[in-house]
From TrEMBL:
GO MF annotation terms: metal ion binding; nucleotide binding; riboflavin kinase activity
Name under which the protein is recorded: Riboflavin kinase
Lineage of origin: Archaea, Thermoproteota, Thermoprotei, Thermofilales, Thermofilaceae
Family note: Belongs to the archaeal riboflavin kinase family.
Pathway participation: Cofactor biosynthesis; FMN biosynthesis; FMN from riboflavin (CTP route): step 1/1
Amino acid sequence: MTQNLDYELLPLLLELAQRGCTYTPRRISKVEIAKTLGVSSWKLNKLLQLAEDEGYLEKQKMGRVFSYQLTPRSLMLLNRVHRTLSMVLKTTPLARLRGVVVPGLGEGAFYMSISKYLEAFKEILGYEPYTGTLNLKLDSESTEARRKLREIRAGYRIEGFSVDGREYCGVTVYKAVITGNGISISGAVLDIDKTKHGDEILEVIAPVKLRDVLKLRDGDRVEVTVLG
């Protein structure tokens, strides 16, 4: 199961939980749920079938109608999201950075391809990032805020190292929440010691491909809440 699918099913599972489908089978109004989620009846039926096929939902026939109940797998997902949100909301942000999506130079993908960096990212973040970065061009105020982050020496430090005679520079990692098109994803910001980019270019990583999950195109506005 990919995290992309988790994110796709999460709104449906949350809505079913609010409608009492957590521990007992409940009849639901597909019309009401489709309206709440802002999807068509066809899309809702597809999501329900997908959730059932992937083991997130059980469907039971009661007479001429069906009832639905969330499975333990659903409850694990909802609990994980709850823990993440609790941690994020209790954390005082170090900065809020705003910018627009721009094409990258492939520099971030290079760091994702080096095993020692990747191991460090996994240890710091608790997951293996998608092999690529989202590049944002920050506005002037956010660029200055980014520079001030370096002064307070926050974040998680990966010192430079040498492999087979080749030198690799240090990287500072900041946990963050990335928001675009009304969707928020937990991720991180990379501050690379030696880079071809100026301070106005921010490289962001996450466990998923952010362009796809946040439905982003070049020029779209994104906000990054830096947590530390």
